[in-house]
Amino acid sequence: MQEVGSASLNPLCSGGFGMHGGTPASGAPKANQNACTHDFFTKDAIAKRRQVQALLGEARKLLEELPLSNA
Q1: Among candidates 38, 39, 36, 17, which has minimal Cα distance to 28?
Q2: What domain range is 71 assigned to?
Q3: Is 59 part of a structural domain of the chain?
Q4: Is position 16 within any domain?
Q5: How many domains does the chain have?
Q6: Are 14 and 8 in contact (CB under 8 A)?
Q7: pLDDT for res 68
Q8: pLDDT tens digits, residue range 16-67?
Q9: Which helix H or strand E contains 44, and what residues bound it?
């Protein structure tokens, strides 16, 4: 009997070459536009999110600097 947490002795489970896996180099090639179905992880989308976050950070700083009115 095998200990819990030890590596599997079955080559289909340990290497990823079985029916449900693939070779480590399998999958879509880099820069394959067919692999991006929702455009969430494209370089342009990531850059836009970073710009928006930077802009929001600047807006928060400006709001913190404004004096509060006691009206």
Answers
A1: 36
A2: 36-71
A3: yes
A4: no
A5: 1
A6: yes
A7: 81
A8: 455 566 677 777 677 776 656 677 778 898 999 999 999 999 999 999 999 8
A9: helix 43-65
Q: In angstroms, rounded to a whole number, what is the distance separating the alpha carbons of residues 13 and 21?
A: 9
pLDDT at position 11 is: 53
Whether the full predicted model's pTM is greater than 0.70, yes or no, is no
Residue 18, domain member (yes or no):
no
Contact status, residue 39 vs residue 45, Cβ threshold 8 Å: yes
Distance CA 11, CA 18 (A): 8
**Spatial separation of the C-alpha atoms in residues 33 and 43, rounded to whole Å:** 12
CB within 8 A of 6, min separation 6: which ones?
A: none
> Among 5, 26, 3, which Cα is nearest to 15's?
26
Identify whether 70 is part of a domain.
Answer: yes
- Euclidean distance between CA atoms 52 and 44, whole angstroms: 12
